[in-house]
Design goal:
Elements (H helix, E strand, L loop, with lengths): L12 H13 L6 H14 L4 E5 L2 H11 L7 E5 L4 H9 L3 E5 L11 H5 L6 E7 L8 H11 L2 E5 L7 E2 L2 E2 L6 E5 L12 E5 L2 H11 L7 H5 L19 H32 L5 E2 L8 E2 L5 E5 L5 H10 L15 H4 L7 H9 E4 L7 H14 L6
Parallel strand pairs: 2-3, 2-4, 4-5, 5-8
Antiparallel strand pairs: 1-9, 6-7, 6-11, 8-9, 10-12, 12-13
Helix pairs in contact: 1-9, 2-9, 3-4, 3-7, 9-13
Bound molecules: pyridoxal-5'-phosphate.
Protein backbone atom coordinates (compact mmCIF):
# COMPACT_ATOMS: atom_id res chain seq x y z
CA UNK A 1 0.00 0.00 0.00
CA UNK A 2 2.83 2.42 0.87
CA UNK A 3 5.75 3.40 -1.34
CA UNK A 4 7.59 4.48 1.79
CA UNK A 5 6.45 3.21 5.18
CA UNK A 6 7.05 5.07 8.41
CA UNK A 7 8.98 2.11 9.80
CA UNK A 8 10.10 -1.34 8.70
CA UNK A 9 11.68 -4.13 10.74
CA UNK A 10 15.31 -4.95 10.01
CA UNK A 11 14.83 -8.66 10.64
CA UNK A 12 16.47 -11.43 8.61
CA UNK A 13 17.10 -15.15 9.03
CA UNK A 14 19.12 -14.49 12.22
CA UNK A 15 16.05 -13.42 14.20
CA UNK A 16 14.04 -16.38 12.81
CA UNK A 17 16.82 -18.81 13.73
CA UNK A 18 17.14 -17.32 17.21
CA UNK A 19 13.44 -17.90 17.85
CA UNK A 20 13.48 -21.40 16.37
CA UNK A 21 16.54 -22.41 18.38
CA UNK A 22 14.87 -21.12 21.53
CA UNK A 23 11.62 -22.96 20.88
CA UNK A 24 13.58 -26.12 20.04
CA UNK A 25 15.57 -25.82 23.26
CA UNK A 26 12.46 -26.59 25.30
CA UNK A 27 12.82 -23.57 27.60
CA UNK A 28 10.81 -20.46 26.71
CA UNK A 29 10.14 -18.52 29.93
CA UNK A 30 12.74 -16.13 31.33
CA UNK A 31 16.04 -17.99 31.74
CA UNK A 32 19.63 -18.12 30.48
CA UNK A 33 19.03 -16.20 27.22
CA UNK A 34 17.39 -13.39 29.16
CA UNK A 35 20.35 -13.30 31.55
CA UNK A 36 22.72 -13.08 28.58
CA UNK A 37 20.62 -10.31 27.04
CA UNK A 38 20.75 -8.40 30.33
CA UNK A 39 24.51 -8.84 30.70
CA UNK A 40 25.31 -7.79 27.15
CA UNK A 41 22.96 -4.80 27.32
CA UNK A 42 24.57 -3.72 30.61
CA UNK A 43 28.04 -4.10 29.05
CA UNK A 44 27.06 -1.89 26.16
CA UNK A 45 25.99 0.84 28.57
CA UNK A 46 29.07 0.43 30.76
CA UNK A 47 29.12 2.27 34.10
CA UNK A 48 28.60 -0.99 36.06
CA UNK A 49 24.86 -1.00 35.73
CA UNK A 50 22.51 -3.89 36.49
CA UNK A 51 20.07 -4.57 33.67
CA UNK A 52 16.69 -6.18 34.29
CA UNK A 53 14.84 -7.40 31.19
CA UNK A 54 11.09 -6.84 31.33
CA UNK A 55 7.94 -7.20 29.26
CA UNK A 56 7.76 -3.59 27.99
CA UNK A 57 9.15 -0.09 28.33
CA UNK A 58 6.02 0.87 30.23
CA UNK A 59 6.67 -1.94 32.72
CA UNK A 60 10.18 -0.57 33.28
CA UNK A 61 8.81 2.94 33.95
CA UNK A 62 6.17 1.58 36.33
CA UNK A 63 8.81 -0.45 38.18
CA UNK A 64 11.07 2.62 38.45
CA UNK A 65 8.32 4.60 40.19
CA UNK A 66 7.50 1.67 42.47
CA UNK A 67 11.18 1.17 43.22
CA UNK A 68 11.48 4.78 44.36
CA UNK A 69 8.30 4.50 46.50
CA UNK A 70 6.52 7.21 44.56
CA UNK A 71 2.79 7.39 45.19
CA UNK A 72 -0.12 9.41 46.46
CA UNK A 73 0.80 12.99 47.41
CA UNK A 74 3.96 13.04 45.29
CA UNK A 75 4.47 15.14 42.19
CA UNK A 76 6.50 13.78 39.29
CA UNK A 77 7.77 16.13 36.59
CA UNK A 78 7.49 14.65 33.10
CA UNK A 79 8.00 16.16 29.63
CA UNK A 80 4.94 17.83 28.13
CA UNK A 81 5.98 16.39 24.76
CA UNK A 82 6.16 12.64 25.14
CA UNK A 83 4.34 9.35 24.75
CA UNK A 84 1.40 8.67 27.07
CA UNK A 85 3.28 5.92 28.92
CA UNK A 86 5.06 8.58 31.02
CA UNK A 87 1.87 10.25 32.26
CA UNK A 88 0.05 6.91 32.58
CA UNK A 89 2.59 5.37 34.95
CA UNK A 90 2.61 8.47 37.14
CA UNK A 91 -1.18 8.40 37.40
CA UNK A 92 -1.12 4.62 37.87
CA UNK A 93 0.93 4.89 41.10
CA UNK A 94 -1.40 7.64 42.37
CA UNK A 95 1.09 10.49 41.96
CA UNK A 96 0.46 13.82 40.22
CA UNK A 97 2.06 14.51 36.83
CA UNK A 98 3.48 18.00 36.32
CA UNK A 99 4.60 19.04 32.85
CA UNK A 100 8.03 20.45 31.97
CA UNK A 101 8.10 22.32 28.69
CA UNK A 102 10.50 21.76 25.79
CA UNK A 103 13.67 23.84 25.97
CA UNK A 104 12.72 25.79 22.84
CA UNK A 105 11.66 25.26 19.22
CA UNK A 106 15.12 23.90 18.33
CA UNK A 107 15.69 21.73 21.41
CA UNK A 108 12.51 19.79 22.08
CA UNK A 109 13.94 18.04 25.13
CA UNK A 110 13.19 19.23 28.65
CA UNK A 111 16.04 21.25 30.17
CA UNK A 112 17.18 22.01 33.72
CA UNK A 113 15.43 25.40 33.40
CA UNK A 114 12.06 24.03 32.23
CA UNK A 115 12.20 21.35 34.92
CA UNK A 116 13.18 23.76 37.70
CA UNK A 117 10.22 26.05 36.92
CA UNK A 118 7.89 23.19 37.93
CA UNK A 119 9.50 22.11 41.22
CA UNK A 120 7.32 22.44 44.31
CA UNK A 121 7.73 21.07 47.85
CA UNK A 122 5.79 17.98 46.68
CA UNK A 123 8.09 17.15 43.76
CA UNK A 124 9.72 13.80 44.34
CA UNK A 125 11.04 12.73 40.95
CA UNK A 126 11.74 13.84 37.41
CA UNK A 127 11.30 11.68 34.32
CA UNK A 128 13.29 12.92 31.32
CA UNK A 129 12.84 11.55 27.80
CA UNK A 130 15.67 11.67 25.28
CA UNK A 131 13.25 12.71 22.54
CA UNK A 132 13.79 11.05 19.17
CA UNK A 133 17.07 9.56 20.42
CA UNK A 134 18.66 12.99 21.08
CA UNK A 135 20.05 13.07 24.63
CA UNK A 136 18.96 15.80 27.03
CA UNK A 137 21.67 18.10 28.43
CA UNK A 138 22.32 15.79 31.37
CA UNK A 139 25.02 17.68 33.32
CA UNK A 140 22.61 20.46 34.22
CA UNK A 141 19.71 18.07 34.87
CA UNK A 142 21.75 15.79 37.15
CA UNK A 143 23.09 18.82 39.03
CA UNK A 144 19.54 20.17 39.47
CA UNK A 145 18.17 16.86 40.76
CA UNK A 146 21.08 16.49 43.19
CA UNK A 147 20.74 20.08 44.42
CA UNK A 148 16.97 19.80 44.93
CA UNK A 149 17.01 16.23 46.28
CA UNK A 150 14.92 14.71 43.47
CA UNK A 151 15.01 11.22 42.02
CA UNK A 152 15.87 11.07 38.33
CA UNK A 153 14.40 8.51 35.92
CA UNK A 154 15.53 8.46 32.30
CA UNK A 155 13.02 7.25 29.73
CA UNK A 156 15.41 5.93 27.07
CA UNK A 157 12.73 4.35 24.88
CA UNK A 158 14.15 6.28 21.91
CA UNK A 159 17.77 6.18 22.96
CA UNK A 160 19.54 2.78 23.21
CA UNK A 161 23.27 3.53 23.06
CA UNK A 162 22.75 7.31 22.71
CA UNK A 163 25.39 9.19 24.66
CA UNK A 164 25.90 12.51 26.39
CA UNK A 165 29.58 13.49 26.77
CA UNK A 166 30.40 9.85 25.96
CA UNK A 167 28.26 8.43 28.80
CA UNK A 168 25.30 6.24 27.86
CA UNK A 169 21.75 7.45 28.34
CA UNK A 170 20.14 5.45 31.10
CA UNK A 171 23.17 5.65 33.39
CA UNK A 172 22.72 9.21 34.71
CA UNK A 173 19.80 8.81 37.08
CA UNK A 174 18.36 6.36 39.58
CA UNK A 175 16.75 4.19 36.92
CA UNK A 176 16.99 4.07 33.11
CA UNK A 177 14.04 2.65 31.17
CA UNK A 178 14.29 1.20 27.66
CA UNK A 179 11.62 -0.04 25.25
CA UNK A 180 12.06 -2.74 22.64
CA UNK A 181 8.64 -2.24 21.06
CA UNK A 182 8.38 -3.05 17.34
CA UNK A 183 9.29 0.38 15.98
CA UNK A 184 12.24 0.99 18.31
CA UNK A 185 15.94 1.01 17.31
CA UNK A 186 16.27 -2.36 19.08
CA UNK A 187 13.07 -4.24 18.37
CA UNK A 188 11.76 -7.48 19.84
CA UNK A 189 8.02 -6.90 19.40
CA UNK A 190 7.21 -6.18 23.04
CA UNK A 191 9.93 -5.84 25.65
CA UNK A 192 12.00 -3.48 27.74
CA UNK A 193 14.98 -3.12 30.05
CA UNK A 194 15.29 -1.40 33.41
CA UNK A 195 18.82 -0.40 34.38
CA UNK A 196 20.28 1.01 37.55
CA UNK A 197 23.54 1.27 39.44
CA UNK A 198 22.25 0.91 42.98
CA UNK A 199 22.13 -2.76 44.01
CA UNK A 200 19.28 -2.22 46.44
CA UNK A 201 17.14 -0.59 43.73
CA UNK A 202 18.03 -3.40 41.30
CA UNK A 203 16.98 -6.06 43.80
CA UNK A 204 13.71 -4.25 44.52
CA UNK A 205 12.97 -4.15 40.79
CA UNK A 206 13.68 -7.87 40.44
CA UNK A 207 11.09 -8.59 43.13
CA UNK A 208 8.52 -6.40 41.33
CA UNK A 209 9.25 -8.21 38.07
CA UNK A 210 8.39 -11.64 39.31
CA UNK A 211 5.66 -11.67 42.01
CA UNK A 212 8.08 -10.71 44.78
CA UNK A 213 9.34 -14.29 44.70
CA UNK A 214 12.70 -15.35 46.03
CA UNK A 215 13.31 -17.92 43.25
CA UNK A 216 12.48 -18.20 39.56
CA UNK A 217 10.82 -21.12 37.80
CA UNK A 218 14.21 -21.79 36.21
CA UNK A 219 15.84 -22.19 39.62
CA UNK A 220 13.28 -24.84 40.51
CA UNK A 221 13.65 -26.52 37.13
CA UNK A 222 17.42 -26.69 37.59
CA UNK A 223 16.93 -28.19 41.03
CA UNK A 224 18.54 -25.20 42.77
CA UNK A 225 15.57 -24.92 45.10
CA UNK A 226 12.37 -26.85 45.71
CA UNK A 227 10.27 -23.95 46.89
CA UNK A 228 10.15 -20.20 47.12
CA UNK A 229 9.17 -17.44 49.46
CA UNK A 230 7.19 -14.34 48.50
CA UNK A 231 9.31 -11.70 50.14
CA UNK A 232 7.51 -8.61 48.76
CA UNK A 233 4.41 -7.85 46.79
CA UNK A 234 5.11 -7.96 43.08
CA UNK A 235 3.84 -8.22 39.54
CA UNK A 236 4.64 -10.28 36.47
CA UNK A 237 6.68 -8.05 34.18
CA UNK A 238 9.03 -10.77 32.93
CA UNK A 239 10.39 -10.99 29.39
CA UNK A 240 10.53 -14.43 27.72
CA UNK A 241 13.33 -16.35 26.06
CA UNK A 242 12.13 -15.85 22.47
CA UNK A 243 12.22 -12.09 22.88
CA UNK A 244 15.58 -12.18 24.64
CA UNK A 245 16.98 -14.32 21.81
CA UNK A 246 15.77 -11.74 19.27
CA UNK A 247 17.13 -9.01 21.55
CA UNK A 248 20.61 -10.53 21.39
CA UNK A 249 20.54 -10.55 17.58
CA UNK A 250 19.23 -6.99 17.51
CA UNK A 251 21.89 -5.91 20.00
CA UNK A 252 24.58 -7.15 17.58
CA UNK A 253 23.01 -5.00 14.88
CA UNK A 254 22.44 -1.89 16.97
CA UNK A 255 25.63 0.09 16.29
CA UNK A 256 25.29 -0.34 12.50
CA UNK A 257 21.60 0.35 12.63
CA UNK A 258 22.18 3.61 14.48
CA UNK A 259 24.89 4.61 11.97
CA UNK A 260 22.58 3.88 9.06
CA UNK A 261 19.88 6.00 10.66
CA UNK A 262 22.38 8.86 10.94
CA UNK A 263 23.20 8.68 7.19
CA UNK A 264 19.53 8.85 6.32
CA UNK A 265 18.92 11.80 8.64
CA UNK A 266 21.87 13.65 7.09
CA UNK A 267 20.31 13.18 3.64
CA UNK A 268 16.96 14.48 4.93
CA UNK A 269 18.69 17.51 6.43
CA UNK A 270 20.58 18.21 3.18
CA UNK A 271 17.39 18.11 1.21
CA UNK A 272 14.99 19.86 3.55
CA UNK A 273 16.96 22.48 5.43
CA UNK A 274 16.31 25.28 2.90
CA UNK A 275 12.56 24.89 2.89
CA UNK A 276 11.00 27.90 4.58
CA UNK A 277 7.88 26.12 5.81
CA UNK A 278 9.85 23.33 7.49
CA UNK A 279 12.29 23.52 10.36
CA UNK A 280 14.34 20.60 11.60
CA UNK A 281 14.74 20.39 15.38
CA UNK A 282 17.44 18.85 17.58
CA UNK A 283 20.31 19.41 15.14
CA UNK A 284 23.67 20.79 16.30
CA UNK A 285 23.01 20.27 20.02
CA UNK A 286 26.22 20.12 22.02
CA UNK A 287 27.90 17.11 23.63
CA UNK A 288 25.53 14.49 22.29
CA UNK A 289 25.72 11.30 20.20
CA UNK A 290 22.12 10.78 19.11
CA UNK A 291 20.68 7.51 17.78
CA UNK A 292 18.08 9.03 15.43
CA UNK A 293 14.99 7.10 16.49
CA UNK A 294 12.57 9.21 14.45
CA UNK A 295 12.83 12.11 12.01
CA UNK A 296 10.55 14.88 13.28
CA UNK A 297 10.03 18.19 11.45
CA UNK A 298 8.17 21.33 12.51
CA UNK A 299 5.75 22.85 10.02
CA UNK A 300 5.16 26.59 9.84
CA UNK A 301 1.76 27.63 11.27
CA UNK A 302 0.23 28.31 7.84
CA UNK A 303 0.66 24.67 6.73
CA UNK A 304 -2.41 22.54 7.35
CA UNK A 305 -0.91 19.34 8.81
CA UNK A 306 -3.94 17.14 8.14
CA UNK A 307 -3.92 18.25 4.48
CA UNK A 308 -0.18 17.57 4.21
CA UNK A 309 -0.49 14.09 5.75
CA UNK A 310 -3.26 13.38 3.22
CA UNK A 311 -1.19 14.67 0.28
CA UNK A 312 1.78 12.54 1.38
CA UNK A 313 -0.54 9.56 1.69
CA UNK A 314 -1.83 10.16 -1.87
CA UNK A 315 1.78 9.82 -3.00
CA UNK A 316 2.32 6.62 -1.00
CA UNK A 317 4.29 8.24 1.84
CA UNK A 318 3.32 7.35 5.41
CA UNK A 319 3.81 9.96 8.12
CA UNK A 320 2.91 10.31 11.77
CA UNK A 321 2.72 12.67 14.76
CA UNK A 322 5.00 12.64 17.84
CA UNK A 323 3.12 13.52 19.97
CA UNK A 324 -0.39 14.88 20.38
CA UNK A 325 -0.74 16.98 23.56
CA UNK A 326 -1.99 15.01 26.58
CA UNK A 327 -5.03 17.30 26.81
CA UNK A 328 -6.19 16.07 23.40
CA UNK A 329 -6.79 12.60 24.83
CA UNK A 330 -10.11 11.84 26.55
CA UNK A 331 -8.41 10.31 29.61
CA UNK A 332 -6.49 13.51 30.40
CA UNK A 333 -9.05 16.12 29.37
CA UNK A 334 -10.40 16.57 32.86
CA UNK A 335 -7.26 16.35 34.96
CA UNK A 336 -5.53 19.57 35.95
CA UNK A 337 -2.38 19.87 33.87
CA UNK A 338 -0.22 22.96 33.78
CA UNK A 339 0.42 24.80 30.50
CA UNK A 340 3.53 24.09 28.46
CA UNK A 341 3.24 26.57 25.57
CA UNK A 342 6.23 25.44 23.48
CA UNK A 343 5.32 21.75 23.67
CA UNK A 344 1.66 22.50 22.96
CA UNK A 345 2.58 24.47 19.85
CA UNK A 346 5.00 21.76 18.68
CA UNK A 347 2.30 19.12 19.25
CA UNK A 348 0.08 20.99 16.75
CA UNK A 349 2.77 21.41 14.09
CA UNK A 350 5.02 18.35 14.32
CA UNK A 351 5.22 15.82 11.52
CA UNK A 352 7.28 12.63 11.58
CA UNK A 353 8.70 11.41 8.27
CA UNK A 354 9.68 7.78 7.55
CA UNK A 355 12.93 6.51 9.05
CA UNK A 356 14.20 2.98 9.48
CA UNK A 357 17.62 1.40 9.04
CA UNK A 358 16.89 -0.50 5.82
CA UNK A 359 15.48 2.62 4.18
CA UNK A 360 17.41 3.64 1.06
CA UNK A 361 18.64 7.12 0.17
CA UNK A 362 16.38 6.80 -2.86
CA UNK A 363 13.41 6.44 -0.49
CA UNK A 364 14.50 9.52 1.48
CA UNK A 365 14.64 11.41 -1.84
CA UNK A 366 11.18 10.15 -2.72
CA UNK A 367 9.80 11.56 0.56
CA UNK A 368 11.59 14.88 0.01
CA UNK A 369 10.54 15.13 -3.64
CA UNK A 370 6.94 14.54 -2.59
CA UNK A 371 7.24 17.39 -0.11
CA UNK A 372 8.66 19.71 -2.79
CA UNK A 373 5.84 18.79 -5.10
CA UNK A 374 3.13 19.27 -2.48
CA UNK A 375 4.58 22.55 -1.25
CA UNK A 376 5.19 23.63 -4.89
CA UNK A 377 8.91 24.11 -4.48
CA UNK A 378 11.79 23.73 -6.89
CA UNK A 379 13.59 20.42 -6.38
CA UNK A 380 17.15 20.54 -5.08
C1 LIG B 1 9.00 7.84 25.01
C2 LIG B 1 8.38 6.50 25.26
N1 LIG B 1 8.27 6.07 26.52
C3 LIG B 1 7.76 4.88 26.81
C4 LIG B 1 7.29 4.04 25.83
C5 LIG B 1 6.63 2.75 26.20
O1 LIG B 1 7.30 1.63 25.76
P1 LIG B 1 6.51 0.26 25.50
O2 LIG B 1 5.67 0.44 24.27
O3 LIG B 1 7.60 -0.75 25.31
O4 LIG B 1 5.69 -0.02 26.70
C6 LIG B 1 7.40 4.42 24.49
C7 LIG B 1 6.94 3.52 23.43
O5 LIG B 1 6.44 3.83 22.42
C8 LIG B 1 7.96 5.70 24.19
O6 LIG B 1 8.07 6.13 22.93
Amino acid sequence: MWKVQLFKLNYDEKESKAVKDTVDSGWITMGEKSKEFENRFANMLGENVSAIAVSSGTASLHMALLGLDIGIGDEVIIPALTFVADINVVKMVGATPVLADCGNFKNWNVTAETIEEQITPKTKAVIVVHFGGYPCQMDEIVELCNRRGLYLIEDCAHAPDARYRGKACGTFGDYGCFSFFTNKNLSVGEGGMLVCKDERLALKAKYFRSHGMSALTLDRHKGRTISYDVEHIGLNYRIDEMRSAIGLVQLDKLKNVNKQRELLVKRYIDKLSDIEDISIPLVNLENIEPVYHIFPILLSPQIDRVWLIGELKNRGIQSSIHYPAFRDFTAFRDIALNDAPVAEDIAKRELTLPLYPTMSLYEVDLVCDSLYEILELERV
